[in-house]
Write a structure and sequence with these properties.
globular, 299 residues, alpha/beta, seven-stranded mixed beta sheet, 52% helix, 11 helices, 14% strand, 9 strands
């Protein structure tokens, strides 16, 4: 259950105040303010800035200069500031509004699975405005269920629940039973999963991520074995104004008699897809997460 510490209560009150202004301001002005807010956070949140730069050093080593890495990190914070403005603005979006703001050339890939009555695991990451991605897919007719972590502030949690329900986005929290997720997929629904963070509380395996072993959730690979649901990568990329959703071809998975080995190999395959998109759009990923926190024994 979300906790209400005094500091978090103050933050929520500020959030509601900001929300009021964001909802009445033109979107372009709101995004400009979100960018400024994100830029301020880059300078104020020293611990997060330091972790982001450390992770960028691990990922890009000598392939990018220190100046380039710092510019990427700053852009990450700015994009997150814009994300906040857009999430607050979601209640203003109907189907026509979101189609003007979010483009997608190949939504037909998912529509075909829907028409055929096939379950889909939407593979994404903490990349771009992932919250907006879920709303876009749901508004476009996809039966969206998203696995997410709980927010540590009950007021903010309630706000997110309201806008998600309004657009038909069903949330399954990480402490939900595997049986519940399996049931939804067997019912031919879609489940959005972001297996790009080091979480020792969920099942996972070590796979290569930016040339370094990283503990990675194996949920999509396991669910594929249990339900036969297809894994389809989906990412949302920020454009000059608005976004573009990139829907990739389904990931080809390996299936042999060695299930443990197959789960490891398939986790590696979808992790590589996530890495490829981060390399292409490095300022879209949340670099200040401690991605390489868990180490293999002996390392």
């Amino acid at each position: 259950m979300a906790k209400n510490k005094p500091g978090r209560a103050v933050i929520f009150l500020l959030f509601r105040l900001v929300s009021f202004f964001v909802l009445v301001l033109p979107t372009r002005i709101g995004l400009m303010l979100g960018k400024i807010f994100g830029s301020l956070c880059f300078y104020i949140l020293k611990k997060d800035r330091k972790k982001a730069l450390e992770n960028l050093d691990i990922a890009f080593k000598d392939s990018k200069s220190r100046i380039e890495k710092r510019a990427i990190a700053k852009k990450v914070f700015e994009n997150l500031g814009k994300n906040l403005v857009e999430v607050i603005s979601i209640p203003k979006l109907n189907k026509n509004g979101i189609k003007r703001y979010v483009a997608c050339k190949n939504i037909g890939i998912l529509q075909q699975f829907l028409q055929q009555g096939k379950a889909v695991i939407i593979l994404s990451a903490h990349f771009g405005n992932w919250e907006l991605l879920a709303h876009y897919l749901s508004i476009m007719g996809m039966p969206m269920n998203v696995i997410a972590r709980r927010v540590r502030q009950s007021g903010l949690e309630a706000f997110l629940i309201r806008i998600r329900k309004k657009n038909g986005v069903n949330i399954l929290y990480r402490d939900a039973s595997a049986k519940e997720v399996v049931g939804l997929l067997k019912n031919k629904e879609f489940a959005g999963i972001m297996p790009d963070q080091d979480m020792d509380s969920v099942s996972g395996v070590f796979v290569d991520f930016f040339n370094r072993l990283a503990w990675t959730p194996s949920g999509p690979a396991v669910l594929n074995f249990l339900t036969g649901a297809t894994i389809v990568p989906c990412f949302i990329v920020r454009r000059e104004f608005g976004h573009e959703v990139l829907i990739e071809k389904p990931i080809e998975l390996v299936k042999t008699e060695d299930r443990r080995k197959d789960i490891s190999e398939n986790t590696q395959r979808y992790t590589k897809v996530i890495e490829d998109h981060i390399r292409k759009f490095p300022d879209h990923w949340v670099w200040f997460h401690d991605r390489w926190k868990t180490r293999p024994l002996g390392n």
